[in-house]
Protein backbone atom coordinates (compact mmCIF):
# COMPACT_ATOMS: atom_id res chain seq x y z
CA UNK A 1 0.00 0.00 0.00
CA UNK A 2 1.60 3.26 -1.06
CA UNK A 3 1.41 6.46 0.91
CA UNK A 4 -0.49 8.15 -1.90
CA UNK A 5 -3.27 5.60 -1.53
CA UNK A 6 -3.70 6.05 2.18
CA UNK A 7 -3.51 9.84 2.15
CA UNK A 8 -6.40 11.64 0.49
CA UNK A 9 -5.08 12.67 -2.93
CA UNK A 10 -6.51 16.16 -2.83
CA UNK A 11 -3.82 17.52 -5.13
CA UNK A 12 -4.86 15.09 -7.86
CA UNK A 13 -8.03 17.00 -8.50
CA UNK A 14 -6.17 20.28 -9.02
CA UNK A 15 -9.34 22.18 -8.29
CA UNK A 16 -9.21 23.11 -4.69
CA UNK A 17 -10.73 26.38 -3.78
CA UNK A 18 -8.34 27.82 -1.27
CA UNK A 19 -10.57 30.52 0.06
CA UNK A 20 -13.50 28.79 1.70
CA UNK A 21 -14.57 31.92 3.56
CA UNK A 22 -14.92 33.83 0.34
CA UNK A 23 -16.84 31.04 -1.41
CA UNK A 24 -19.19 30.65 1.52
CA UNK A 25 -19.67 34.37 1.85
CA UNK A 26 -20.72 34.53 -1.81
CA UNK A 27 -23.17 31.66 -1.31
CA UNK A 28 -24.58 33.41 1.76
CA UNK A 29 -25.05 36.65 -0.16
CA UNK A 30 -26.67 34.74 -3.03
CA UNK A 31 -29.10 33.12 -0.59
CA UNK A 32 -29.82 36.43 1.10
CA UNK A 33 -30.58 37.99 -2.30
CA UNK A 34 -33.59 35.66 -2.44
CA UNK A 35 -32.91 34.28 -5.90
CA UNK A 36 -33.11 30.63 -4.84
CA UNK A 37 -36.54 31.29 -3.34
CA UNK A 38 -37.82 31.83 -6.83
CA UNK A 39 -39.29 28.51 -8.00
CA UNK A 40 -38.60 29.27 -11.69
CA UNK A 41 -34.92 29.78 -10.81
CA UNK A 42 -34.81 26.40 -9.02
CA UNK A 43 -36.57 24.76 -11.95
CA UNK A 44 -34.04 26.24 -14.39
CA UNK A 45 -31.10 24.98 -12.32
CA UNK A 46 -32.59 21.48 -12.18
CA UNK A 47 -33.24 21.48 -15.91
CA UNK A 48 -29.62 22.52 -16.45
CA UNK A 49 -28.43 19.69 -14.23
CA UNK A 50 -30.54 17.23 -16.19
CA UNK A 51 -29.08 18.59 -19.44
CA UNK A 52 -25.59 18.17 -17.96
CA UNK A 53 -26.27 14.45 -17.32
CA UNK A 54 -27.64 14.02 -20.83
CA UNK A 55 -24.87 15.91 -22.61
CA UNK A 56 -22.03 14.30 -20.63
CA UNK A 57 -23.29 10.75 -20.22
CA UNK A 58 -20.27 9.26 -21.98
CA UNK A 59 -17.84 11.31 -19.89
CA UNK A 60 -19.59 10.22 -16.71
CA UNK A 61 -19.39 6.57 -17.76
CA UNK A 62 -15.68 6.97 -18.62
CA UNK A 63 -14.92 8.63 -15.27
CA UNK A 64 -16.66 5.77 -13.44
CA UNK A 65 -14.77 3.27 -15.52
CA UNK A 66 -11.48 5.00 -14.73
CA UNK A 67 -12.19 5.08 -10.99
CA UNK A 68 -13.90 1.70 -10.50
CA UNK A 69 -13.63 -0.12 -13.85
CA UNK A 70 -17.42 0.01 -13.61
CA UNK A 71 -19.20 -1.62 -16.62
CA UNK A 72 -21.24 0.86 -18.68
CA UNK A 73 -24.55 -0.91 -18.06
CA UNK A 74 -24.13 -0.71 -14.29
CA UNK A 75 -23.25 3.00 -14.51
CA UNK A 76 -26.36 3.63 -16.57
CA UNK A 77 -28.65 1.82 -14.14
CA UNK A 78 -27.24 2.99 -10.85
CA UNK A 79 -25.88 6.39 -11.72
CA UNK A 80 -26.99 8.33 -14.84
CA UNK A 81 -30.52 6.95 -15.35
CA UNK A 82 -31.19 7.11 -11.65
CA UNK A 83 -30.07 10.76 -11.47
CA UNK A 84 -32.07 11.71 -14.56
CA UNK A 85 -35.24 10.07 -13.26
CA UNK A 86 -34.75 11.72 -9.90
CA UNK A 87 -34.68 15.20 -11.46
CA UNK A 88 -37.63 14.45 -13.77
CA UNK A 89 -39.61 13.32 -10.73
CA UNK A 90 -38.73 16.54 -8.87
CA UNK A 91 -39.60 18.75 -11.85
CA UNK A 92 -42.95 17.02 -12.24
CA UNK A 93 -43.92 17.52 -8.58
CA UNK A 94 -42.08 20.70 -7.62
CA UNK A 95 -45.01 23.11 -7.96
CA UNK A 96 -47.08 20.96 -5.61
CA UNK A 97 -44.29 20.44 -3.11
CA UNK A 98 -43.49 24.14 -2.69
CA UNK A 99 -47.10 25.14 -2.02
CA UNK A 100 -47.87 26.02 1.59
CA UNK A 101 -49.59 23.11 3.28
CA UNK A 102 -53.01 23.68 4.80
CA UNK A 103 -53.45 21.16 7.61
CA UNK A 104 -56.93 20.34 8.89
CA UNK A 105 -58.08 22.71 11.63
CA UNK A 106 -59.73 22.11 14.96
CA UNK A 107 -62.90 23.96 16.03
CA UNK A 108 -60.82 26.51 17.99
CA UNK A 109 -59.12 27.70 14.77
CA UNK A 110 -62.12 27.59 12.47
CA UNK A 111 -61.83 31.30 11.69
CA UNK A 112 -58.03 31.31 11.33
CA UNK A 113 -55.48 30.59 8.63
CA UNK A 114 -53.38 27.60 9.60
CA UNK A 115 -50.49 27.07 7.18
CA UNK A 116 -47.11 25.44 6.90
CA UNK A 117 -44.62 27.22 4.63
CA UNK A 118 -41.83 25.25 2.98
CA UNK A 119 -38.75 27.32 3.75
CA UNK A 120 -35.23 26.57 2.56
CA UNK A 121 -32.63 26.26 5.33
CA UNK A 122 -30.07 28.53 3.65
CA UNK A 123 -26.57 27.41 2.64
CA UNK A 124 -26.20 23.66 2.92
CA UNK A 125 -23.18 21.39 2.60
CA UNK A 126 -23.46 18.06 0.77
CA UNK A 127 -20.53 15.65 1.17
CA UNK A 128 -20.40 12.60 -1.12
CA UNK A 129 -18.70 9.19 -0.91
CA UNK A 130 -16.53 7.40 -3.49
CA UNK A 131 -18.53 4.24 -4.13
CA UNK A 132 -21.32 5.92 -6.13
CA UNK A 133 -19.44 9.18 -6.61
CA UNK A 134 -22.02 10.98 -8.77
CA UNK A 135 -25.43 10.01 -7.48
CA UNK A 136 -24.59 10.02 -3.76
CA UNK A 137 -23.60 13.66 -4.15
CA UNK A 138 -25.92 14.93 -6.88
CA UNK A 139 -29.23 13.36 -5.80
CA UNK A 140 -29.16 15.17 -2.43
CA UNK A 141 -27.88 18.29 -4.22
CA UNK A 142 -30.92 18.21 -6.55
CA UNK A 143 -33.24 17.88 -3.55
CA UNK A 144 -31.51 20.82 -1.82
CA UNK A 145 -31.82 22.97 -4.97
CA UNK A 146 -35.49 22.03 -5.30
CA UNK A 147 -36.09 23.14 -1.72
CA UNK A 148 -34.54 26.55 -2.49
CA UNK A 149 -31.17 26.28 -0.76
CA UNK A 150 -27.71 27.33 -1.86
CA UNK A 151 -25.47 24.26 -1.84
CA UNK A 152 -21.75 23.67 -1.41
CA UNK A 153 -20.86 20.43 -3.19
CA UNK A 154 -17.98 18.36 -1.80
CA UNK A 155 -17.29 15.27 -3.94
CA UNK A 156 -15.19 12.38 -2.63
CA UNK A 157 -11.53 12.76 -3.52
CA UNK A 158 -11.06 8.98 -3.62
CA UNK A 159 -12.98 8.68 -6.91
CA UNK A 160 -10.61 11.26 -8.40
CA UNK A 161 -11.85 11.15 -12.02
CA UNK A 162 -15.46 11.68 -10.95
CA UNK A 163 -14.41 14.50 -8.61
CA UNK A 164 -12.62 16.16 -11.52
CA UNK A 165 -15.70 15.80 -13.71
CA UNK A 166 -17.92 17.32 -11.04
CA UNK A 167 -15.56 20.23 -10.37
CA UNK A 168 -15.01 21.03 -14.04
CA UNK A 169 -18.41 20.37 -15.57
CA UNK A 170 -21.17 20.98 -13.02
CA UNK A 171 -20.24 24.69 -12.60
CA UNK A 172 -20.85 25.14 -16.34
CA UNK A 173 -24.51 24.25 -15.74
CA UNK A 174 -25.32 25.63 -12.30
CA UNK A 175 -25.28 29.15 -10.89
CA UNK A 176 -21.71 29.54 -9.59
CA UNK A 177 -22.54 31.81 -6.67
CA UNK A 178 -25.27 29.55 -5.34
CA UNK A 179 -23.73 26.13 -5.98
CA UNK A 180 -19.91 26.13 -5.63
CA UNK A 181 -17.92 22.88 -5.82
CA UNK A 182 -15.10 22.40 -3.34
CA UNK A 183 -12.67 19.53 -3.82
CA UNK A 184 -10.18 17.98 -1.47
CA UNK A 185 -9.67 15.30 1.15
CA UNK A 186 -10.05 15.16 4.92
CA UNK A 187 -8.08 18.40 5.48
CA UNK A 188 -10.31 20.42 3.19
CA UNK A 189 -13.45 18.69 4.49
CA UNK A 190 -12.50 19.50 8.07
CA UNK A 191 -11.80 23.09 7.11
CA UNK A 192 -15.22 23.24 5.48
CA UNK A 193 -16.81 21.69 8.54
CA UNK A 194 -15.33 24.38 10.75
CA UNK A 195 -17.56 26.86 8.89
CA UNK A 196 -21.17 27.40 9.83
CA UNK A 197 -23.71 25.80 7.50
CA UNK A 198 -27.48 25.74 7.81
CA UNK A 199 -27.71 22.02 7.01
CA UNK A 200 -25.17 19.26 6.41
CA UNK A 201 -25.92 16.12 4.41
CA UNK A 202 -23.17 13.52 4.64
CA UNK A 203 -22.76 10.11 3.00
CA UNK A 204 -19.83 7.92 4.01
CA UNK A 205 -18.41 5.88 6.81
CA UNK A 206 -19.74 5.94 10.35
CA UNK A 207 -16.29 7.00 11.56
CA UNK A 208 -16.33 10.22 9.52
CA UNK A 209 -20.08 10.58 10.18
CA UNK A 210 -19.19 11.07 13.84
CA UNK A 211 -16.64 13.76 12.90
CA UNK A 212 -19.29 15.51 10.78
CA UNK A 213 -21.87 15.26 13.54
CA UNK A 214 -19.47 16.67 16.14
CA UNK A 215 -18.58 19.59 13.84
CA UNK A 216 -22.26 20.29 13.10
CA UNK A 217 -23.02 20.18 16.80
CA UNK A 218 -20.83 23.24 17.42
CA UNK A 219 -23.32 25.37 15.50
CA UNK A 220 -26.37 23.18 16.22
CA UNK A 221 -26.55 22.55 12.49
CA UNK A 222 -29.14 19.91 11.54
CA UNK A 223 -27.66 16.94 9.69
CA UNK A 224 -28.60 13.94 7.67
CA UNK A 225 -26.04 11.14 7.94
CA UNK A 226 -26.17 8.30 5.42
CA UNK A 227 -23.68 5.88 6.91
CA UNK A 228 -22.24 2.41 6.61
CA UNK A 229 -22.52 1.88 10.32
CA UNK A 230 -20.16 -1.03 10.61
CA UNK A 231 -17.24 -1.68 12.86
CA UNK A 232 -13.97 0.01 12.02
CA UNK A 233 -11.19 -2.15 10.68
CA UNK A 234 -8.51 -2.78 13.28
CA UNK A 235 -6.08 -0.39 11.55
CA UNK A 236 -8.58 2.46 11.69
CA UNK A 237 -9.28 1.65 15.33
CA UNK A 238 -5.62 2.04 16.15
CA UNK A 239 -5.24 5.13 13.98
CA UNK A 240 -8.09 7.01 15.61
CA UNK A 241 -7.69 5.52 19.04
CA UNK A 242 -11.42 4.83 19.41
CA UNK A 243 -13.16 1.54 19.87
CA UNK A 244 -16.50 1.55 18.12
CA UNK A 245 -18.38 -1.70 18.37
CA UNK A 246 -20.62 -1.47 15.36
CA UNK A 247 -21.84 -4.44 13.43
CA UNK A 248 -22.46 -5.66 9.95
CA UNK A 249 -25.46 -4.39 8.00
CA UNK A 250 -27.98 -5.46 5.37
CA UNK A 251 -28.32 -9.12 6.31
CA UNK A 252 -30.26 -11.42 4.01
CA UNK A 253 -32.49 -14.24 5.23
CA UNK A 254 -33.60 -16.99 2.84
CA UNK A 255 -36.25 -19.50 3.82
CA UNK A 256 -37.07 -22.79 2.19
CA UNK A 257 -40.19 -21.49 0.42
CA UNK A 258 -38.31 -19.47 -2.23
CA UNK A 259 -37.68 -20.19 -5.89
CA UNK A 260 -33.96 -20.55 -5.32
CA UNK A 261 -32.50 -19.83 -8.78
CA UNK A 262 -34.19 -16.42 -8.90
CA UNK A 263 -33.24 -15.66 -5.30
CA UNK A 264 -29.59 -16.55 -5.96
CA UNK A 265 -29.47 -14.30 -9.04
CA UNK A 266 -31.01 -11.34 -7.24
CA UNK A 267 -28.73 -11.75 -4.22
CA UNK A 268 -25.55 -12.19 -6.28
CA UNK A 269 -26.40 -9.21 -8.50
CA UNK A 270 -26.93 -7.02 -5.41
CA UNK A 271 -23.69 -8.30 -3.95
CA UNK A 272 -21.53 -7.97 -7.06
CA UNK A 273 -22.73 -4.74 -8.64
CA UNK A 274 -19.89 -2.20 -8.25
CA UNK A 275 -17.77 -5.13 -6.99
CA UNK A 276 -19.69 -5.25 -3.71
CA UNK A 277 -18.82 -1.62 -2.92
CA UNK A 278 -22.43 -0.73 -2.23
CA UNK A 279 -23.72 0.37 1.17
CA UNK A 280 -26.88 -1.70 0.64
CA UNK A 281 -25.17 -4.81 -0.77
CA UNK A 282 -26.39 -7.91 1.06
CA UNK A 283 -23.68 -8.52 3.67
CA UNK A 284 -24.25 -12.03 4.83
CA UNK A 285 -26.79 -14.76 4.29
CA UNK A 286 -28.73 -16.38 7.07
CA UNK A 287 -30.31 -19.71 6.11
CA UNK A 288 -30.51 -23.39 7.05
CA UNK A 289 -27.62 -25.77 6.32
CA UNK A 290 -29.72 -27.48 3.66
CA UNK A 291 -30.44 -24.16 1.96
CA UNK A 292 -26.78 -23.18 2.15
CA UNK A 293 -25.70 -26.27 0.18
CA UNK A 294 -28.33 -25.62 -2.49
CA UNK A 295 -27.42 -21.90 -2.64
CA UNK A 296 -23.75 -22.68 -3.22
CA UNK A 297 -24.49 -25.11 -6.07
CA UNK A 298 -26.77 -22.57 -7.78
CA UNK A 299 -24.32 -19.71 -7.18
CA UNK A 300 -21.50 -21.59 -8.96
CA UNK A 301 -23.77 -22.08 -11.92
CA UNK A 302 -24.99 -18.48 -12.02
CA UNK A 303 -21.46 -17.06 -11.78
CA UNK A 304 -20.37 -19.23 -14.71
CA UNK A 305 -23.39 -18.10 -16.73
CA UNK A 306 -22.64 -14.41 -16.01
CA UNK A 307 -18.85 -14.22 -16.14
CA UNK A 308 -17.68 -17.36 -18.01
CA UNK A 309 -14.89 -19.72 -16.95
CA UNK A 310 -12.33 -17.01 -16.31
CA UNK A 311 -14.06 -14.33 -14.26
CA UNK A 312 -11.03 -12.04 -14.35
CA UNK A 313 -11.40 -11.72 -18.11
CA UNK A 314 -15.05 -10.70 -17.88
CA UNK A 315 -15.71 -7.00 -18.59
CA UNK A 316 -18.76 -7.13 -16.34
CA UNK A 317 -17.17 -7.03 -12.90
CA UNK A 318 -15.84 -3.77 -11.39
CA UNK A 319 -12.60 -3.61 -9.43
CA UNK A 320 -11.79 -2.69 -5.85
CA UNK A 321 -11.29 1.10 -5.59
CA UNK A 322 -7.69 1.07 -4.26
CA UNK A 323 -4.92 -1.10 -2.78
CA UNK A 324 -5.91 -0.10 0.74
CA UNK A 325 -9.32 -1.67 0.37
CA UNK A 326 -7.95 -4.57 -1.66
CA UNK A 327 -5.55 -5.58 1.17
CA UNK A 328 -8.33 -5.14 3.74
CA UNK A 329 -10.55 -7.51 1.74
CA UNK A 330 -7.82 -10.16 1.51
CA UNK A 331 -7.67 -10.05 5.30
CA UNK A 332 -11.44 -10.56 5.56
CA UNK A 333 -11.25 -13.58 3.23
CA UNK A 334 -9.33 -15.44 5.94
CA UNK A 335 -12.53 -15.92 7.95
CA UNK A 336 -14.33 -19.30 7.66
CA UNK A 337 -13.83 -21.58 4.64
CA UNK A 338 -13.96 -20.62 0.96
CA UNK A 339 -16.82 -22.50 -0.75
CA UNK A 340 -16.82 -20.52 -4.01
CA UNK A 341 -14.13 -18.31 -5.62
CA UNK A 342 -11.19 -17.05 -3.60
CA UNK A 343 -8.82 -16.01 -6.41
CA UNK A 344 -7.36 -12.50 -6.54
CA UNK A 345 -4.84 -10.42 -8.46
CA UNK A 346 -3.32 -7.38 -6.77
CA UNK A 347 -2.05 -5.88 -10.03
CA UNK A 348 -5.67 -5.31 -11.12
CA UNK A 349 -7.24 -5.11 -7.67
CA UNK A 350 -9.35 -8.06 -8.81
CA UNK A 351 -11.11 -10.30 -6.31
CA UNK A 352 -13.17 -13.21 -7.56
CA UNK A 353 -16.75 -13.38 -6.26
CA UNK A 354 -16.24 -15.41 -3.10
CA UNK A 355 -18.64 -17.25 -0.81
CA UNK A 356 -17.47 -18.14 2.69
CA UNK A 357 -19.04 -20.77 4.93
CA UNK A 358 -18.36 -21.95 8.51
CA UNK A 359 -17.89 -18.36 9.65
CA UNK A 360 -18.29 -17.52 13.32
CA UNK A 361 -20.32 -14.53 14.56
CA UNK A 362 -17.18 -12.85 15.88
CA UNK A 363 -15.05 -13.40 12.77
CA UNK A 364 -13.86 -10.11 11.21
CA UNK A 365 -15.96 -10.79 8.08
CA UNK A 366 -19.08 -10.88 10.26
CA UNK A 367 -18.22 -7.78 12.26
CA UNK A 368 -16.46 -5.40 9.88
CA UNK A 369 -17.84 -3.67 6.85
CA UNK A 370 -17.09 -5.87 3.81
CA UNK A 371 -17.51 -3.50 0.86
CA UNK A 372 -16.24 -6.09 -1.62
CA UNK A 373 -17.35 -9.21 -3.56
CA UNK A 374 -17.24 -11.54 -0.55
CA UNK A 375 -20.42 -13.14 0.78
CA UNK A 376 -20.32 -15.03 4.08
CA UNK A 377 -23.10 -17.50 4.93
CA UNK A 378 -24.16 -18.21 8.49
CA UNK A 379 -26.49 -21.10 9.20
CA UNK A 380 -29.54 -20.77 11.43
CA UNK A 381 -32.33 -23.23 12.23
CA UNK A 382 -35.28 -21.04 11.27
CA UNK A 383 -36.68 -17.49 11.01
CA UNK A 384 -36.82 -17.10 14.83
CA UNK A 385 -33.10 -17.90 15.03
CA UNK A 386 -32.35 -15.44 12.24
CA UNK A 387 -34.31 -12.67 14.01
CA UNK A 388 -32.48 -13.37 17.25
CA UNK A 389 -29.16 -13.13 15.41
CA UNK A 390 -30.12 -9.85 13.68
CA UNK A 391 -31.42 -8.32 16.89
CA UNK A 392 -28.22 -9.15 18.75
CA UNK A 393 -26.49 -6.57 16.50
CA UNK A 394 -27.01 -2.93 15.54
CA UNK A 395 -30.00 -2.09 13.33
CA UNK A 396 -29.28 -2.84 9.65
CA UNK A 397 -29.47 -0.26 6.88
CA UNK A 398 -31.61 -2.72 4.90
CA UNK A 399 -33.01 -6.09 5.80
CA UNK A 400 -33.39 -8.49 2.88
CA UNK A 401 -35.94 -11.27 3.27
CA UNK A 402 -36.47 -13.99 0.69
CA UNK A 403 -39.66 -15.89 1.42
CA UNK A 404 -43.00 -16.75 -0.14
CA UNK A 405 -44.65 -17.11 3.26
CA UNK A 406 -46.44 -14.01 4.57
CA UNK A 407 -46.24 -15.38 8.15
CA UNK A 408 -42.45 -15.51 7.88
CA UNK A 409 -42.32 -12.01 6.44
CA UNK A 410 -44.53 -10.67 9.25
CA UNK A 411 -42.16 -12.12 11.83
CA UNK A 412 -39.37 -9.93 10.40
CA UNK A 413 -41.56 -6.85 9.85
CA UNK A 414 -42.74 -6.90 13.46
CA UNK A 415 -39.69 -8.41 15.11
CA UNK A 416 -36.76 -6.38 13.76
CA UNK A 417 -35.65 -2.77 13.28
CA UNK A 418 -33.84 -1.56 10.14
CA UNK A 419 -33.52 1.51 7.91
CA UNK A 420 -35.64 -0.27 5.29
CA UNK A 421 -36.67 -3.69 4.03
CA UNK A 422 -36.67 -5.31 0.63
CA UNK A 423 -38.50 -8.56 0.07
CA UNK A 424 -37.47 -11.12 -2.55
CA UNK A 425 -35.00 -8.74 -4.20
CA UNK A 426 -31.95 -6.64 -3.41
CA UNK A 427 -31.06 -2.99 -4.17
CA UNK A 428 -34.29 -2.38 -6.11
CA UNK A 429 -35.99 -0.56 -3.23
CA UNK A 430 -33.34 2.18 -3.56
CA UNK A 431 -34.62 3.92 -6.73
CA UNK A 432 -38.29 3.88 -5.69
CA UNK A 433 -39.13 7.62 -5.39
CA UNK A 434 -42.10 6.90 -3.18
CA UNK A 435 -39.93 5.31 -0.47
CA UNK A 436 -37.71 7.21 1.98
CA UNK A 437 -34.14 5.92 1.95
CA UNK A 438 -32.10 6.13 5.14
CA UNK A 439 -30.72 4.27 8.10
CA UNK A 440 -31.61 3.99 11.76
CA UNK A 441 -29.26 3.88 14.74
CA UNK A 442 -25.67 3.37 13.59
CA UNK A 443 -26.70 3.11 9.93
CA UNK A 444 -27.65 6.77 9.88
CA UNK A 445 -30.23 9.41 10.65
CA UNK A 446 -32.67 11.12 8.32
CA UNK A 447 -33.75 10.02 4.87
CA UNK A 448 -34.12 11.24 1.30
CA UNK A 449 -35.25 10.38 -2.26
CA UNK A 450 -38.28 11.90 -3.97
CA UNK A 451 -40.45 14.07 -1.73
CA UNK A 452 -38.47 12.89 1.31
CA UNK A 453 -35.37 14.59 -0.14
CA UNK A 454 -37.29 17.83 -0.64
CA UNK A 455 -38.60 17.65 2.93
CA UNK A 456 -35.13 16.91 4.30
CA UNK A 457 -33.84 20.24 2.95
CA UNK A 458 -37.00 22.14 3.92
CA UNK A 459 -37.79 23.84 7.18
CA UNK A 460 -41.50 23.44 7.88
CA UNK A 461 -42.40 26.95 9.03
CA UNK A 462 -45.74 26.95 10.81
CA UNK A 463 -47.90 30.03 10.67
CA UNK A 464 -51.15 30.87 12.42
CA UNK A 465 -53.01 33.78 10.78
CA UNK A 466 -55.75 35.52 12.78
CA UNK A 467 -57.92 38.40 11.77
CA UNK A 468 -58.69 41.37 13.95
CA UNK A 469 -62.46 41.19 13.56
CA UNK A 470 -64.55 41.87 16.63
CA UNK A 471 -66.18 38.42 16.79
CA UNK A 472 -62.84 36.66 17.03
CA UNK A 473 -61.58 39.11 19.59
CA UNK A 474 -64.68 38.56 21.72
CA UNK A 475 -64.11 34.81 21.65
CA UNK A 476 -60.48 35.27 22.63
CA UNK A 477 -61.03 37.80 25.38
CA UNK A 478 -61.15 35.16 28.10
CA UNK A 479 -57.34 35.00 27.97
CA UNK A 480 -56.87 38.61 29.15
CA UNK A 481 -56.48 39.71 32.76
CA UNK A 482 -58.02 40.22 35.14
CA UNK A 483 -58.26 36.41 35.39
CA UNK A 484 -61.24 34.87 37.12
CA UNK A 485 -62.75 31.45 37.72
CA UNK A 486 -65.61 32.40 35.41
CA UNK A 487 -63.16 33.13 32.55
CA UNK A 488 -61.17 29.92 33.02
CA UNK A 489 -64.32 27.82 32.82
CA UNK A 490 -65.05 29.22 29.34
P1 LIG B 1 -14.93 8.55 1.50
O1 LIG B 1 -13.56 8.14 1.95
O2 LIG B 1 -15.15 8.99 0.11
O3 LIG B 1 -15.39 9.66 2.53
C1 LIG B 1 -16.63 10.30 2.41
C2 LIG B 1 -16.39 11.79 2.52
O4 LIG B 1 -15.83 12.10 3.79
C3 LIG B 1 -15.43 12.31 1.46
O5 LIG B 1 -15.97 13.45 0.86
C4 LIG B 1 -14.16 12.58 2.23
O6 LIG B 1 -13.43 13.65 1.72
C5 LIG B 1 -14.65 12.87 3.62
N1 LIG B 1 -13.68 12.45 4.62
C6 LIG B 1 -12.94 11.33 4.63
N2 LIG B 1 -12.18 11.26 5.76
C7 LIG B 1 -12.47 12.39 6.47
C8 LIG B 1 -12.01 12.91 7.72
N3 LIG B 1 -11.11 12.27 8.45
N4 LIG B 1 -12.51 14.09 8.14
C9 LIG B 1 -13.43 14.75 7.39
N5 LIG B 1 -13.88 14.30 6.20
C10 LIG B 1 -13.42 13.14 5.75
O7 LIG B 1 -15.95 7.43 1.70
P2 LIG B 1 -16.01 6.35 2.73
O8 LIG B 1 -16.24 6.98 4.04
O9 LIG B 1 -14.90 5.35 2.59
O10 LIG B 1 -17.34 5.71 2.06
C11 LIG B 1 -17.66 4.47 2.20
C12 LIG B 1 -18.62 4.38 3.36
O11 LIG B 1 -19.82 5.05 3.03
C13 LIG B 1 -19.00 3.00 3.69
O12 LIG B 1 -18.94 2.84 5.09
C14 LIG B 1 -20.44 2.86 3.21
O13 LIG B 1 -21.19 1.94 3.94
C15 LIG B 1 -20.91 4.25 3.40
N6 LIG B 1 -22.00 4.55 2.49
C16 LIG B 1 -23.23 4.74 3.01
C17 LIG B 1 -24.29 5.02 2.16
C18 LIG B 1 -25.68 5.23 2.69
O14 LIG B 1 -26.52 5.70 1.93
N7 LIG B 1 -25.97 4.92 3.95
C19 LIG B 1 -24.07 5.11 0.79
C20 LIG B 1 -22.78 4.91 0.31
C21 LIG B 1 -21.74 4.65 1.17
Give an account of the 3D structure.
Keywords: Membrane, NAD, Oxidoreductase, Transmembrane, Transmembrane helix. Belongs to the aldehyde dehydrogenase family. Helices cover 43% and strands 15% of the residues. The chain contains 20 helices and 16 strands. The strands form 4 sheets. A 7-stranded mixed β-sheet has the order 8-11-12-7-6-13-14, with helices on both faces. The protein has a 5-stranded mixed β-sheet with strand order 3-2-4-5-15, sandwiched between helices. α12 links the parallel β6 and β7. α4 runs antiparallel to α6, α7 packs across α18 and α12 crosses α13. The chain is globular and about 85 Å long. The N terminus is likely disordered. It binds nicotinamide-adenine-dinucleotide.
Write the SSE topology.
Elements: H1 3-6, H2 10-13, H3 20-32, H4 39-55, H5 57-68, H6 72-98, E1 113-120, E2 123-127, H7 135-146, E3 150-154, H8 160-169, H9 186-193, E4 199-204, H10 206-218, E5 223-227, H11 234-240, E6 252-254, H12 260-272, E7 285-287, H13 289-307, H14 323-332, E8 337-340, E9 344-345, E10 350-351, E11 354-357, H15 364-367, E12 374-379, H16 383-391, E13 398-402, H17 406-415, E14 420-423, E15 444-445, H18 450-456, E16 458-465, H19 470-476, H20 485-488
Parallel strand pairs: 2-3, 2-4, 4-5, 6-7, 6-13, 7-12, 11-12, 13-14
Antiparallel strand pairs: 1-16, 5-15, 8-11, 9-10
Bound molecules: nicotinamide-adenine-dinucleotide.
Give descriptors for this structure.
single chain; 490 residues; alpha/beta; 16 strands; 15% strand; globular; binds nicotinamide-adenine-dinucleotide; membrane; Ald_DH/histidinol_DH
Amino acid sequence: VTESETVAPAAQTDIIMANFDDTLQRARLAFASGKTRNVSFRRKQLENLLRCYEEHENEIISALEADLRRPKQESLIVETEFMKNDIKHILYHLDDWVKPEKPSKSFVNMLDDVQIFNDPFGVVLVIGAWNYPLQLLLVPVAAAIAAGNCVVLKPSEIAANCAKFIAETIPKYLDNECYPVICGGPTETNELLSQRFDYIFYTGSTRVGKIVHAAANKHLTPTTLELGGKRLSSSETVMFNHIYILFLYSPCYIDKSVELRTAVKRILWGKLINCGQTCIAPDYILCSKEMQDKFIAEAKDVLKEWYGDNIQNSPDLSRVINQNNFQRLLGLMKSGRIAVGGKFDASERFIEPTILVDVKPDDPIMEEEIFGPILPMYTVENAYDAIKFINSRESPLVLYIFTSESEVLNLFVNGTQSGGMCVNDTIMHYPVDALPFGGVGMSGMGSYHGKYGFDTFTHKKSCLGKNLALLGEKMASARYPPYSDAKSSL
